[in-house]
Amino acid sequence: MAEATIQDEERAIEEEFALFDEWRDKIDYVMDLGRNLKPFPAASRTEANKVHGCQSQVWMVAHVDPRTGRLHLDADSDAILVKGLIGLLMRLYDDRPPAEIVATPPTVFDRVGLGRHLTPGRANGLHAMIRRVRELAAAQA
Fold first, then answer.
1. Residue 85 in domain
2. Could you tell me if residue 134 is inside a domain?
3. CA 43 to CA 101: how far, in whole Å?
4. Which of 6, 30, 33, 54 is catalytic?
5. In 19-119, which residue ranges form alpha helices assigned H by DSSP?
6. Is residue 75 assigned to a domain?
7. How far apart are CA 135 and CA 141, in angstroms?
8. How far apart (Å, rounded) are the C-alpha atoms in residues 85 and 76?
9. Domain for residue 1, yes or no?
10. 94-105 pLDDT, tens digit each
């Protein structure tokens, strides 16, 4: 079976969001994703790894697996909703070739309505996290 592409993941996220009628249920779903993030090393919670432009504290690091050339992301936040947004970003971009990440901006967030339903501060933070992922990938591409 072929590996899921970023577009495949975007379609899956859209389908998952479509299961919920109420926006509150969608937010609860995003927060559940945040509760399932893998642990982030305390040593990586540095100023250099902070994502600036976020209302909450957000840290993000990336490294390329020398065997596969794929970018591996780790990130965390002190806010559960933001952790969930990180979870969505990880589904799209973790363990992908850097060039694929750079070539594929996320469009699913607007399609599922996150842009309309997040507070302006959270929406700005989401855009800052997307920018950071793409910068990290571009640096490795």
1. yes
2. yes
3. 26
4. 54
5. 23-35, 80-93, 98-103, 108-111, 114-117
6. yes
7. 10
8. 10
9. no
10. 999 999 999 999
Range of the domain at 55: 6-140
10 is catalytic: no
Structure tokens at 30: 């995003």
CATH number of domain containing 43 = 3.90.1010.10
User: 89-140, pLDDT tens digit by residue?
Assistant: 999 999 999 999 999 999 999 999 987 888 888 899 999 999 999 999 999 8
Task: Kindly state the percentage of the chain with pLDDT values over 70.
Answer: 99
Domain count, the chain: 1
Confidence of residue 2 (pLDDT cuts 50, 70, 90): low
What residue type is assigned to position 88 of the chain?
L
Continuous segment of H or E residues that includes residue 56: none
If one compares 3 and 17, the residue with the highest pLDDT of the two is 17
